[in-house]
Amino acid sequence: MSGHADLAQLRALVDHVISARAKAKGHDDLPALCKRLGLPQPPSKEGNTKAQRVDASLASCLDTDLPAVAEAILDNEALTAAERNDLQDALWAGRPHIPIPARARRELSQDLDLSNHIRYADRFMALLDSVWLLEHDVFGEWATNEPSLRSEIARHVIRFPDDWSAETLFEELGAFEAPHPRFARFLEQLASATFLPDEQAQRTYVEMANRHLQSVGAQLRHDGDQDGYPLFHLVGSGRGTARGPRNLIFATLGKPDIRFTSALDNDIEIAERADQVLVYDRPIGKDGLRWHELRAWWQESRQIPQGEDAGKALYDRMEACLPTNSPGQHNLFWLYHRIHRDTLDDVPALLPEIWIHWDPKSVRARGDNALTNLRMDFLMLLPGGHRVVLEVDGIQHFTRNHGTEPDSSRYAATMAGHRDLTLRGYEVFRFGHDELRDRQRAHPLLTDFFQQLLNHSPQQRA
Predict the structure, then answer these.
(1) pLDDT at site 401
(2) Nearest Cα residue to 233 out of 256, 209, 212
């Protein structure tokens, strides 16, 4: 599920934090503060107060840049827990998230045994601190004359663990009513080795949680390793796969010549004509593969100096692999980057000529056991493990003899491959070539399509 960020609220929260920081600094410190947080440079101090300069800087900040500023504040500024949570909630509201209904939350809490977690009491309290508000206010118990939630948890969960059940703890934390992204963060942190450094205990918790999450189309998925422990992320289980991709072979100018350098570890190497194949072999996180990550990989792997435009070089290399006889594919690729030119860093990378299957033998040599649709036109890796394939179908998909005769067997093979990909957890969207042949006509069609694809959850599309 994806919501819409409340930009007015986000701007007000950013204003609150920036204004407070500006009061504690001198006029000469403001340009560095704004630069660190990604804000436009403030006007000159001549004739302006610090508040006026900061207000002018924030007013010049575009709505599209506000999320990045909020992220910079969260990364660089010392915030109170309330400031942190308010900013996170406003920021996360506009991002794809997995909805976990209150009933599933409560039933999960009723089944949760906290004994493994509270063996690491300091880590467990740090976990709760990273997600929830454990103090009444900045004055704590002295001002309210009531025990803080922190001290109550220390007493009733840590020192006397039979006092509170996990359900009671969830109730006190506000977990049953919390926004979906915050509850998702809580579930992930409960599975994290940072707070539970015991792999068997991690897996016991994840197995229990997944029994309750399965019914609402979600799961905690093993998504790589961190410091030798398994790493788990909450993903939707209605679409997508249980595993993260290991190797992305794309933008090929011919069939790749692949060999395993380590069959045990699934390490591959392009034996010949490596310059004609791109292989992205970095871990894919829960946010999928975004353009800025692909560009960073290209820049580092090709040792391109920071001052040079690595993105343009990567775009040109990928465009070069597109078939010359398919204007529709060229238009889709060009328009995707055109439509998202102002937000390109944060949208999923569009990978052309992606190898979904690979067989060292030819289809003719393999015969009846041959895999169909080895290579697809485009792949996108979206948040939550969701893999989206885009195909531009020309007449070769359902005709023979250069399009002069219908060929039902070719059409059947295309549809069989489509079904196979869907059953494997991919979402496949097909465009007729004529829809995309004319760039001006294709522009509104693709604008609407990508807006719906990227702004709605896989559960909603399913």
Answers:
(1) 60
(2) 209
